[in-house]
Amino acid sequence: MGPWVPLQYDVATPMDGAIVAPIQRWDDRMSAVTPDEDIFYCVGLLHSGSFDDWQDLDNQNKEILEFCDRAGIKMKQYLPHYKSKEDWIKHFGSKWNNFLERKAQFDPRMILSPGQKIFNSV
Q1: What does the record give under GO molecular function (predicted)?
Q2: Among 8, 27, 46, 56, whose CB has the most other CB atoms within 10 angstroms?
Q3: pLDDT (0 to 100) of residue 122
């Protein structure tokens, strides 16, 4: 077993669960977005459900994100689906300018990831 902590998860029963893993900060020059702390926690919420439940699960995820925002809990989403450039700027935080520079260097014609709505209005 790795350094993660399974809080509640059993594949044999239809239960929700979570995995919490302490992560140590790595090379800050990478474009991966991590919190400012040296050690942070990766939290995975494991939902169970059927295809028909996807909207309820999506709404539950939105409620969790809104709660974190209201409570001032700093968090980053893995594979986020943001709808505005401002959301992406908030996501990248202090790494936003580095991200812009790398985008200009490696994708100057801005043909990669048009659906992410990061550079549509830049």
Answers
A1: cytokinin dehydrogenase activity; flavin adenine dinucleotide binding
A2: 46
A3: 44
Other beta carbons within 10 Å of 38: 8
Angle at 59 between CA 67 and CA 5, to 5 degrees: 65
Element (H, E) at 6: strand 5-6
Which pLDDT does position 14 carry in this prediction? 54
- Placement of tokens 């700027």 in the chain: 89
Q: Is the dihedral of CA 71, 72, 78, 83 positive or negative?
A: positive
Burial 45-72 (b: 16+ CB within 10 A, else e): eeeeeeeeeeeeeeeeeeeeeeeeeeee
More confident residue, 115 or 63: 63
Give the whole-angstrom CA distance, residue 41 versus residue 61: 18
Length of the chain equals: 122
Domain definitions of the chain by residue range: 1-77, 80-122
Q: How far apart are CA 6 and CA 111, in angstroms?
A: 40
Say which residue, 35 or 62, is predicted with more confidence.
62
